[in-house]
Amino acid sequence: MIRFPPNFVTLAQLWRKSRCFQLVGSKLPHSKMSVDTDETHQRLKAAVHYTVGRLCQKVGEEHRREFSRQVVAAIAETAFRQCDVFAKDLEAFARHAKRSTVNAEDVKLVARRSTALSIYIQNKSEELTQEQRDLKKKSTGKRKSRDTEEDSRE
Amino acid sequence: TYTVHYYVLCLQDTISKLLSSLFKEDKTKLSGDAVLLMAEMLKVFVQEAAVRSQKQAESEDCDQVDIEHFEKILPQLVRSFNKV
Fold first, then answer.
1. How many Å apart are CA A136 and CA A78, to the nearest integer?
2. What confidence tens digit (pLDDT) does each residue in A33-65 have?
3. Distance between CA B11 and CA B36 in Å, rounded?
4. How is chain A split into domains, by residue range?
């Protein structure tokens, strides 16, 4: 059972009210989406806010310091704005490669702005590729040893 | 652990819809891998923000991490994620 500090009660209520759960798993009717873009944005913002709250809570627990509601909101807002930057860059990279689908290569280019982040994302990408290769391989009885690189973090 | 996985799935779904809504063109789509990696990237961003804010609060002997701590570390954080 996950326990939240008191200031998260309102946030959870807001999140439940915005019916963010509907976004997960179930398909959003496309016709409705164009009409309710603002509402959708609000729900997405609330979902980001909720996740930021969870991550801050975890960091807070590790260092025995609570994050105020205002700072969580501020981090969430900044993260949301950063997504806008990411989205525009991703789209530009994909377009430059004459693709309409953003893929992992575009993400790696965006991550290149930070060395530590770039290494982390590169590792994650390789993990993903390896997992996909392992899944594709039919079980032949041969066991393959996996090389796992250590994440290099600052 | 079900709850943890649910939140991870929720974030990926959220990221997918969020980024899609922020693209300039309707035809731009996201591959599954891109969504996964972007969710990771956003997680790193938020964790960096949180950890740095926490360290700032610690250096100021504050019991709670507050908005002024975040504001102090924000310029460097933005710079490190948006180097040209």
1. 39
2. 455 578 888 888 888 999 999 999 999 999 999
3. 9
4. 11-102, 114-154
Are residues B14 and A94, on separate chains, in Cβ contact within 8 Å?
Answer: no
Q: State whether residue B75 sits within 8 Å of chain A by CB.
A: no
Closest by CA to B79, choosing from B43, B52, B39, is: B52
Do B69 and B62 form a contact (C-beta atoms < 8 A)? yes
Q: What is the pTM of this model?
A: 0.72
Domain ranges of chain B: 2-82
> How far B4 CA sits from the closest chain A CA (Å)?
10
- Tell me if A35 sits within 8 A of A96, measured CB to CB: no
Phi-psi region of B61 (alpha: psi -120 to 50; beta: other; left: phi over 0): left
According to CATH, the topology of domain B2-82 is: Histone, subunit A (1.10.20)
Is the Cβ–Cβ distance between A44 and A81 less than 8 Å?
A: no
Per-residue pLDDT of chain B (84 residues; tens, 9 = 90+): 455 555 556 788 899 999 999 999 999 999 999 999 999 999 999 999 999 999 999 999 999 999 999 999 999 998 888 775
Yes or no: domain A11-102 corresponds to CATH 1.10.20.10: yes
Average pLDDT over residues A82-102: 95
